[in-house]
Structures are given as structure tokens and as C-alpha cells.
Specification:
Elements: E1 19-22, H1 28-33, E2 40-44, H2 54-65, E3 67-71, H3 84-97, E4 101-105, E5 108-111, E6 114-120, H4 126-143, E7 148-150, H5 165-176, E8 179-183, H6 184-193, H7 198-203, E9 210-216, E10 219-222, E11 228-231, H8 240-253, E12 258-261, H9 269-293
Parallel strand pairs: 1-2, 1-12, 2-3, 3-4, 4-7, 7-8, 8-9, 9-12
Antiparallel strand pairs: 5-6, 10-11
Helix pairs in contact: 4-5
Amino acid sequence: MMPLVDARGRRAAGLPIGAGLGLKPQHLQDARDDCGRCVFFEVHAENHLGAGGPAHRMLEWISANHALTIHGVGLSIGGATLDAAHLERVATLVARYQPAAFSEHLAWSSHAGEFLNDLLPLPYDETTLARVCRHIDQVQTRLGRQILIENPATYVEFESSTMSEGAFISALVARSGCGLLLDVSNAFVSANNHGRDPWADILALPLHAVGEIHLAGFATEIDDTGVALLIDAHNGPVGDRVWALYRKVLERIGPRPTLIEWDNALPGFDRLLQEARRVDLTLANAGRCRSDAA
């Protein structure tokens, strides 16, 4: 099947529906042994920007056996400027492996040539919207494809914002033609940190544009005032309240490709497969429910 393209000839994101896992080098052999258990794997772009070596041998195996999604963490889409050299390295990687999807974060992580080890929030206003749309257009044009933008996990918000996150992302999708990577865990973390209803926040997003879903574990810390703060830690299983939100999302929009993110305190591969299996069961149940309703 030829990949779909948009009106500008850019390839549309097109992961297969099913469960995916972020693949780490220490799990590569396990993934080879259980190669039929996941329909796609994700890697972070910045771990594969060299010319060769083990990192690329892993991508070669994924590309030959599974759908691949590349997730950027360093383009700094929300920054003052895009780093042209970094974009070129990402474009070379994408052209080499032709992933089914490429995604990035609605955040900034570099400034004036300095890269920061964080994904930092943005003020939601017209100036920021115009800048981010411009950057997304640059990236989509250079990659020759639609990209997916992930809703962020946030711990602070800007008083200067003039629109909600949902309104901002909806306008971003409408103006730029990008898709949405719906991180259900991020929505849960952010809403709880800011005293909002996570389901209402999700409903405010452009759910028609969801090309992929992320699920991850979160951690709870207590701040200096004694208030619980949720951290997007990716260091454990997906929480029950996030699973409940995920089921509601699928009831609303139908099955979507869904990735389990577990990047820290890594368990054995079998434990990751248990989470992936739960995704598959949830997707299957959502598909049956929608068929019965029709």
C-alpha cells in the first residue's frame, strides 16, 4: 500500500493499529525472540543521529520486521528558532529509515545554541502559536511528511497565556496540518497538577487528528507546601486512572496505535509485553463495542 499524502504531497503519519513499545538496546535480543508480539517500536531520534554502529543495526532490524516510529526530543519546536543543523540530521535519519510516523513535543529545549535536558512549557498566545506553526511547517517541509505533535506534561503555567492548551493545540493542528500524538498520561499529569478535570482537558483537544496514543507511568512527589505533584517519570506501569481515561478515549474516537513508554527503571522485556498485551486487549474490546453500537 502506498503511503497517504496530503495536499502538499507530504506523507501522512500511518502507524498500524495495535500495541507498540519504546525499544531500548538492552531489550533488542528479547524483541528478536518475540518478534510477533508488538506491531511497532519507537526510538528517540537523538539516540540514532550517528552514521552507523549498533544503534543503526537496531533500526535496520526494526524496519525489516515491524513498523517504526521515531520520536524527537530535541527539535525544540517551541523555541525561538529551529536549529537548522539538528533538523538536517533528523531529516537524514528519517529519509534513511522511512518510519511510519515521526513525532515531536510541544515544548522548547534549546536556546541560543544551548541544549537543555528538559522539555519546557510555552505561553499559549497568538505570538507563540504563529512561531510554532512556522516551525512545524519548516519541519514538515524538510521531512516531506506530516508530523505528530505531543501534548505536554506541565508543572507550571504562564499567567500571560490567552488561550487554553486545548484551544492552542486545536489551532495548531488546523493551521499547520500536523497530527496529534495524544499522550493520555501527560493529560492526566497536567490536569491534576493544575487542578483541572483530565477528561475535560482531553475533550478540548482535536481528537479527530489523533494519529498515535502514548501511555506511561507517573510518579508522585510532595512539593514544599505539602501538595502532591505528579511527575511524568516513565518509570513504572501505567496507572489505573490513566487506563480508565484511555478506555474513554477509545470509546470516543475508536482504536488508535498505542505506545507504552517505560524509559527509566527498566524492567525485563516480559514485563513490558504484559503492558502491551493490556493495550491489545483494550483496543480489541473498544473495537467490539463500536461494532456492536453500529
